[in-house]
User: Which sequence fits this backbone?
């Protein structure tokens, strides 16, 4: 059964990939989770697979074992598989879906002849709906047979397989964090500031999401320099200083973020980064405000 699958970990990613692979002809034999109830719910969502609580020998029936658990749990899952499976692991493909960890996290199964790899779709999963993965990057690395299977999975989902070296995975993952989780943090910070300014939650979200969407559309069509907007892009350093002062009175951590991201914008977007960063350091209230932020007083 070359397209048989066992899914260990029934979280957002495991459920979504399981559902999509089931729809594309993969035979999901086992869906394992920490509890029987969670496993049953996941198997129902995937529409396939025997629900199993914990790591057991049932997973060894599949040719490919997909480990979709939190990063810190991957080595322990691999160790459990090695203890349970031993020689039965020989020739199996074991893939994890972490963006930050490489195939080395699965080292225990390699000792028994399994082929280890990692396959990370650069996609946000919300746990409610199944996102389309057509055109999405799948970062793949590991042992050659595992890489071939991962590439096959990615292509079957309409994704774009991208070979990446193990040592570059943390940087790759950090890039995704910048563009997803950290962008969301900045968006929510802006919403909270607008709410303090008097806007209702819904109106604040709509205003900033619309603004962000417009800038990202310009970025995609025109590139970073033409899409860049805001006071720093215009050289309005007085406005930057005024913004810092306003944010300093709102919350010190917000100010630290504003200063850091402003410097980052100067570094990656300005035509002359050194000049912009130098000018930022001379802002009249720049140093005192940063000191206030680090002191923890709002």
Assistant:
């Amino acid at each position: 059964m070359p397209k048989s699958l066992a899914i260990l970990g029934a979280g957002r990613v495991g459920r979504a990939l399981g559902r999509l692979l089931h729809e594309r002809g993969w035979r999901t034999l086992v869906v394992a989770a920490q509890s029987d109830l969670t496993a049953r719910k996941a198997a129902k969502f995937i529409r396939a697979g025997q629900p199993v609580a914990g790591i057991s020998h049932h997973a060894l029936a599949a040719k490919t074992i997909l480990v979709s658990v939190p990063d810190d749990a991957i080595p322990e899952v691999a160790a459990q598989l090695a203890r349970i499976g031993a020689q039965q692991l020989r020739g199996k493909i074991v893939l994890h879906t972490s963006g930050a960890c490489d195939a080395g996290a699965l080292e225990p199964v390699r000792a028994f002849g399994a082929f280890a790899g990692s396959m990370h779709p650069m996609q946000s999963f919300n746990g409610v709906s199944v996102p389309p993965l057509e055109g999405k990057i799948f970062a793949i690395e590991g042992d050659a047979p595992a890489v071939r299977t991962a590439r096959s999975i990615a292509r079957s989902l309409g994704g774009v397989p991208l070979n990446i070296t193990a040592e570059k995975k943390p940087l790759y993952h950090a890039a995704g964090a910048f563009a997803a989780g950290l962008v969301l943090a900045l968006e929510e910070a802006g919403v909270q500031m607008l709410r303090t300014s008097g806007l209702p939650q819904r109106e604040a979200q709509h205003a900033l999401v619309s603004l962000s969407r417009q800038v990202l559309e310009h970025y995609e069509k025109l590139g970073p320099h033409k899409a860049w907007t805001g006071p720093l892009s215009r050289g309005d350093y007085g406005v930057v200083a005024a913004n810092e002062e306003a944010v300093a009175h709102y919350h010190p951590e917000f100010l630290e973020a504003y200063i850091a991201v402003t410097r980052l914008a100067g570094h990656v977007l300005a035509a002359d980064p050194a000049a912009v960063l130098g000018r930022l350091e001379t802002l009249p209230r720049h140093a005192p405000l940063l000191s206030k932020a680090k002191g923890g007083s709002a």
Summary: The beta strands are 4-8, 27-33, 50-53, 64-67, 93-96, 115-121, 137-142, 160-163. The chain has two domains: 4-167, 178-295. The longest helix spans residues 201-222.
